[in-house]
Structures are given as structure tokens and as C-alpha cells.
Amino acid sequence: MTFQDLAGNPRRGKIGFLSMLSVGLGYSLVAHFLDLLHAPPVPPPFLAIPADRYFHWAAWFYAPGMLLGWILASAVIQIFSRLLGGQGKFEDTLALTGWASALGTLATLLPDLVLTLVQVAGWMDYGHWRGSVDHGGPWFYIVWAYLLLYLGLFLVFYPQVVWTVHRLSGRRAVGAGWTGFLVYQGFLMLFAR
Questions:
Q1: Other CB atoms closer than 10 Å to residue 184's CB: what's the count?
Q2: Where does residue 45 rank: exposed (0-12), middle (13-18), buried (19+ CB within 10 A)?
Q3: 54, 66, 67, 95: which has the fewest Cβ within 10 Å?
Q4: Mean pLDDT, the chain, as a whole number?
Q5: Distance from first CA to last CA of the chain, Å, rounded?
Q6: pLDDT interval class at 46 (50, 70, 90)
Q7: Are 174 and 159 in contact (CB under 8 A)?
Q8: Could you tell me which residues come within 8 angstroms of residue 191 by beta carbon, excluding any fewer than 6 positions away?
């Protein structure tokens, strides 16, 4: 489904919400697996939660945090788009931003989910994997590859939302879209480790 297809779908709000709820619950499952692995949060948590219990609690607040971040980013995109001459409705911005955020998040959710599941199952040692990530081993490059894919998808999808909903193009779409992404990612960094 393209952004244009979703914009014309009468169920777009439900699709955006369910898309975000799905990735939020997926990351809650990743947090649960990390709790089972006794993984430390990296970097240390911003929230005043003991590091050894962080992922236990994160399993409960990741999904709500992602939903709140999505709503906040959508509001920022709406406000900036309107200031730049856009005429779209917030409901459409919210729906399409939900779809865009979920698609972008799949770039990290799928590998994170598979890796933590494999580690919980005992097919891969968490300590060895973490050492490879921390010290420039092969997993360092793999993790950075999917993080860069995540970044690239958001940097493309959020301006696409602005273009589709508000009919802004070029720098105005990029400016509103990227500002929304910075707000979304900044909000998630308060919670996600």
C-alpha cells in the first residue's frame, strides 16, 4: 500500500493506529527478551529505573511510549506543515505518520526481535554478541546497517507524509517531515534503550 492509497482509504486512522500498536507491542516483546537475558540498557537509562530492572519495566512502557511519540510527532508535522502553507487535516497526518513510523520501525524491530529470540533460546550467546557490537566486530556493522536503514526510511517516509497530506514539496516537505522525525526520535530516546 502506498501513502496515496492509504490517504484514500476510509480506514486509514485504524490502519495507522494498529500499525503503531503492532510495532510498539513488538518492541515490548524485545524488552521482555532483554529482561530475560539480564541485558543492561545502553546507554544508561534517562528514567530513574535501576539498570538491572530497566527492561522489565520497559516491556510495559515501550508500546505506550511509541504511541505517544507518534501522536507528538504527528502534531509537530501538522503544525509545521500548516505554518509552511499546508492544508491537510490532522487526522490524515496522524494516520499516515502511523503507517510511515511502523514501516520505518520494521527495519530495526525485525532484526532486534529475531536476535533477542535467538539469544533467549540459547542459540546465540548474548555476551558474545554484545562484545562484537561494542568492540567493532561483525555485529557492529550489521547493527549499524539496520540502524542506517531505519534512519533512511524515516527521512524518506515523513516528507512523503507531508507531501501526501499537505501537498507541500521540496524543502517544505523535508523541513516539516524531518522536524517531526527529530521530535519522534527525541521522545523515544527518553524511554528506549
A1: 25
A2: buried
A3: 67
A4: 95
A5: 31
A6: confident
A7: yes
A8: 46, 47, 58, 61, 62, 65
